[in-house]
Amino acid sequence: MLWDVLMEAVQWSGKNQQQNSNSALRQVKAWAGLLNAFCTTGKLELELIYKVQTQCYEDAKLMKLFPEIIRTLYDHDVLAEDTILLWFRKGSNQKGRQSFVKALEPFVKWLEEAEEEE
C-alpha cells in the first residue's frame, strides 16, 4: 500500500530520535496530498489508521510518533474527525490497542472540546 512506500522513504540515519521523528513527519506531510486522493471514504481513512497503527506497533522508532502522525494526517485533511473518533472509541486494531488509545487521548479530547464549542 501507499503507506508502506511512504515509510520506506523515511531516512532513519538521524543522529538521534528527534531527527528521525522529524524525518518521518516530513515524509507524512510530503505524501499527505497523495494519501488524501486515496482516502475518499471513511472506510478507507479507517484502513489508513489501522495501517499506521500496525506500522508503529512493528517499528519501535515510530511507536511514540503515532499521535503526531494522526494529527498531521488530520491537519492535512487526510483523516476526518469522525473517523479518528470512531477508531478511538471502538475501531482500533488489537496490536498495542491500549498504548495507542492512551497516546491519542489528548488529541481526541481536543477534538471533542473543539466540537462542543461549535
TrEMBL record:
Record field: transmembrane: none
Domain W2 stretches: 1-118
One Gene Ontology cellular component annotation held by this UniProt entry: membrane
Entry-linked SUPFAM superfamilies: ARM repeat (SSF48371)
InterPro entries: ARM-type_fold (IPR016024), eIF5-mimic_regulator (IPR051245), W2_domain (IPR003307)
PROSITE patterns: W2 (PS51363)
Coiled coil, from the record: none
PANTHER family tied to this protein: BASIC LEUCINE ZIPPER AND W2 DOMAIN-CONTAINING PROTEIN, PROTEIN KRASAVIETZ
Entry protein name: W2 domain-containing protein
Organism: Eleusine coracana subsp. coracana
